[in-house]
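hey so i finally got around to running the thing on that chain from the lab meeting. sorry it took forever, my laptop kept dying and i had to restart like 3 times. anyway pasting the input first so we r on the same page abt which one it is
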Amino acid sequence: MLKVRVIPTLLWKDFGLVKGVGFDSWRRVGTILPAIKVYNTRDVDELILVEITATSEEREPDYESVADLSAECFVPLTIGGGIRTVEHITRLLHAGADKVSINTAAYEKPSLVTEAANRFGAQCIVASIDVRRSPDGRYECYGRSGTTATGREPTEWARELEDRGAGEILLTSVDRDGTMSGYDLDLIKRVSESVRMPVIASGGAGEYQHMLSAVAHGGASAVAAASIFHFTPKTPLEAKRFLAKNGVAVRTEKNTNRSVITES
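ok and heres what got predicted. didnt touch it at all, straight out
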């Protein structure tokens, strides 16, 4: 059985860290490199770093900055933002990323997921799904940082991404993002039950109990969070201790071995 991971999410804009609510009202909360150095010492399982303006500004990922940051990161690092081609992924992996997170480009060119998985392996392709819930209860996937409706239903899209070779899903409730009111358990459960690959729950964590619920009731294989670690004294290590105390198998030893991704 896979051990549950606790994964801080770092949102990157203009060399600073930001955090908003519902993918809006971005507030500066620090700088990237010091945060990575802190997390190196806090028993995190992985880090997710997303450059939130790269796609909207039609820019490629900032490979130079990724290389500098990855050199100081001693846990597996997922990079997202601005990825549109296999060449972009190649350059990010060469810059030190362990995985890449693909969102908007997957809707615009689904074959990118297939091409990337075939070339690099499913283990380094994270399919990011950002979801909003309408007043009538329907869920819909959104691209471009939660601003563009795609017409895709999350469970169907998740199954397609799995069929195309993605290794795991980063599932974010845009409505819950930054609220610290708890994950959308119904959404997590629906998607987790529809695929065999791991699902990372994201959007809404404010208490350790929220993380436990995402795993125990939603079926998530990992929990990602930002605000809880930026704005409260809570830590990833204490989150893992809480999960373990409540019967969840977690990684207990600090992982300092970075994987090496090569083209296949």
